[in-house]
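Comment thread on ticket #2218

A.B. wrote:
> Attaching the input chain for the structure job we discussed in standup.
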Amino acid sequence: MSRIEIGQGESLEKALRRFKKKIEREGILKQLKARKHYEKPSEIKRKKIRASKSSKFK
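C.D. wrote:
> Ran it. Output below, let me know if you need it in another format.
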């Protein structure tokens, strides 16, 4: 679970922005979106293969 400490005199908007960045860096949103719908194991393998092929050419 991700947590941030709000500093003395820090605005809520600034703390929320830091929290969103932290969540993005940890990959929690990406993981949540991936789990939203069931993917068959064969689809997962295909995605990994496509990703590895595209990263080789960069």
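A.B. wrote:
> Thanks. Noting for the ticket: The chain has three helices and no strands.
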